[in-house]
Amino acid sequence: MKLYELMYIITPDHEENEADALIENVKGIIEDGGNLVNVDVWGKRRLAYPIRKRTEGYYVVCVFESESSFIAQLNQMLRVNEAILRHMIVLYDDDIEKLKTSQEEAASESPDSDATEDIIASGEDTSESGEVIDNAEENTAESV
Predict the structure, then answer these.
(1) DSSP 3-state assignment of 93?
(2) Which of 4, 16, 2, 18 is nearest to 82 (CA)?
């Protein structure tokens, strides 16, 4: 079994709950043929170029483990789904231990996410030393 990475873009015509349902559907397809390792939903982003007269899409990245024979089936299932603008399946070449470690860190930092959201909402940034840096003047100068 090999590790693969799937990136796909869902049309922006759907509401967010419909996009979540499609993501769950793709997860189910992957779990039928392999083991799902990680799902990273990037959300709605601007496309690099228009695809089917659309300029935005919901980006999703999945890392999974499966046999190489399953990739052709998955590719066909994604190709026939009209809600998916583009998809790409590649061999996962990054370190799997690094991915698992980052998942564990994200899970352990989850209770502290409120503090992080407060900093982000206030437009402040922290340096490695822990001091708070105010970027308000810098952001205003760049936007003018």
Answers:
(1) coil
(2) 18
Task: Please give the full DSSP string across 40-51, using - where no structure is assigned.
Answer: EEEEEEEEEEEE
pLDDT digits (tens, 9 = 90+) for 91-127: 887 766 666 666 676 667 755 444 444 434 444 444 4
Q: What's the CATH number for 2-94?
A: 3.30.70.60
Every domain of the chain with CATH number 3.30.70.60 lies at: 2-94
Lookup: tokens for 91: 């061999």
Closest CA to 64 of 89, 101, 97, 98: 89
Closest to 22 (Cα-Cα) out of 73, 71, 75, 84? 84
